[in-house]
Amino acid sequence: MAQSDTFTRWSVIASGEGGGRIASQFFDRTENPGIDDRILVMNTNRADLRNTIDRLSDQIQSEQNENEMMESHALEFGSQQGAGNFFPNGEACAREDLDRIVNRIKDLSTADAFMHVATLGGGTGNGSIPYAIDQFKRGLDDLDDEGAAEEWMDSVIHTAFGVWPYYYENPQRHFNAVCGLSRLLRTEDDQQNADMVLLAANSHLDQEENGGSRHYDSINDAIITAIDLMIGAGRETRSVIDVKDYVTIPSQMDAYHFTPAVATELNGDVYELEYMLDQAAENTYVPMDIGTTSAAYAIVRAPEAMIEEDVISEPDVYGAFRDWTGKHGINVAGQASLTPKRGRGSDVDVLLLLGGFDLNPLLDHSWDEFEMLGDSLAGQSRGDSADLSKAELGRLVENLEAYVEQNAG
Ligand SMILES: Nc1nc2c(ncn2[C@@H]2O[C@H](COP(=O)(O)OP(=O)(O)OP(=O)(O)O)[C@@H](O)[C@H]2O)c(=O)[nH]1
Ligand SMILES: [Mg+2]
């Protein structure tokens, strides 16, 4: 078997405008080890979808023209042309077209793990992604056509990347985000939904807080860098950490939300590893207290030549990680890994995946905004196809509160 067959095969599945923009940045690169071109961008709105694909084909030198890209990597779903920034509409659209969504995912060819991507402030991605994950994990029982699922789909691991709205965005965005996080984490009957939920907050990654699409580009770059490091750790023969390692123990602990913390291009000839881990820890993707972390993975990526010449070794990385967790008083489930990148030089990249931390610093403001709106949105029907009952909303709140409380320490 060729070595590449032994690596985890990922598919990236994005829904909504922001999710689509993030996923489309994968096309903008010469290679995506682990993903190749298994990328699907979905939206309820054809014009938005077209924009994403148009920008893409301008950027990349692809043999595929725009129409072919639309055919192979894009899917319009639902009959509503948009979700009106109300997540139950996004969910209703996905329910309506679940069979088409599943068929398109199947067309990407088999995968071992999905990386689902959505912004949590919107209605389309945030409404559809948690629903789609739940459906996959239930064996797609909403589908009329039972033949639609294939065997490999049963064992796929579902990781999700959710983007928190800017602090200053309107209450409706924060309402969506609170509900979206609840639904990514928990099913309606309070079981685990996604196997791993990764979070990034726009305000935290964009200190200038101006919004606008220029800033999205740099935030989205940071998100792609984290995903890249995470996937890369499962691809080399040294101390491999693979997606099963990321999800198994945190799920057992009911502590499966994570944030990346990243530092790149650190001079590995000059800096100690422990210092590099500290640098990464200073750049978490959401506001959090490191001391509340209960699961952590460290991925150190260094040039091949540095590893061969023993400038940096696996025992160094394990030792530094142990010292680092000790220093922060974190008693964590975790693992460290050294992964090579091509070439010489001395640039080292570090990813910490920090999990099970106290979510309150991220949620505080959003809960306030949520409470302003919660009751006014429940019991109402907006748009033609979906509504949100008080009981449903109550469950979302209870499920999230219980999860957060348990992880608050
Ligand atoms: N990081 C990042 N955030 C984005 C991007 N685009 C939009 N957002 C954020 O996402 C939220 C809006 O969600 P959209 O992605 O536009 O919504 P949607 O999924 O298309 O759903 P609709 O509400 O139905 O349009 C806001 O909180 C924005 O700040 C992006 O490219 N990157
Ligand atoms: Mg949209």
From TrEMBL:
<dbReference type="InterPro" id="IPR003008">
    <property type="entry name" value="Tubulin_FtsZ_GTPase"/>
</dbReference>
<keyword id="KW-0175">Coiled coil</keyword>
<dbReference type="Pfam" id="PF00091">
    <property type="entry name" value="Tubulin"/>
</dbReference>
<protein>
    <recommendedName>
        <fullName>Tubulin/FtsZ GTPase domain-containing protein</fullName>
    </recommendedName>
</protein>
<feature type="coiled-coil region">
    <location>
        <begin position="46"/>
        <end position="73"/>
    </location>
</feature>
<feature type="domain" description="Tubulin/FtsZ GTPase">
    <location>
        <begin position="12"/>
        <end position="205"/>
    </location>
</feature>
<dbReference type="GO" id="GO:0005525">
    <property type="term" value="F:GTP binding"/>
</dbReference>
<dbReference type="InterPro" id="IPR036525">
    <property type="entry name" value="Tubulin/FtsZ_GTPase_sf"/>
</dbReference>
